[in-house]
Amino acid sequence: MAGDAAADLRAGRDAGVRTVACLWGAGRREALARQAPWRTVTCVGELTVLLDGLTAGAVGAGAGGTIVLAPATMGAGDPSARLRGSDG
After folding, report:
1. Secondary structure of the chain: what % helix, strand, coil (to 5)?
2. CA distance 43 to 65
């Protein structure tokens, strides 16, 4: 789950998914770092590269991490909104 606020990262952790701190939004670097995100990105381009790598593994080979798309972009009941790889 990618987010720009500590609450976003807590929600992802509570859901049992990897979290990515996005530094271009409202959250401060220090507050996001305290949430121990899996990765931290400084721009949309870095996030795109990271997600491309995860989806290539998760979709193409059936392995790779977890990707969660925000409900605003996908229907909450849409099963494709959550792809879980073998390493969880």
Report:
1. 40, 15, 45
2. 20
Low-confidence ranges of the chain (pLDDT < 50): 59-88
Distances (CA, A) of 15 to 22, 35, 45: 18, 14, 25
Token couple for 19: 């979290």
Q: How far is CA 79 from CA 9, 15, 16, 52, in A?
A: 21, 15, 17, 19
User: What is 2-84's CATH topology?
Assistant: Rossmann fold (3.40.50)
pTM of the model: 0.64
Q: Taking the domains of the chain in order of start, what are their residue ranges?
A: 2-84
| Interval 19-42: pLDDT, tens | 999 999 889 999 999 999 999 999
The number of beta carbons lying within 10 Å of the beta carbon of residue 10 is 14
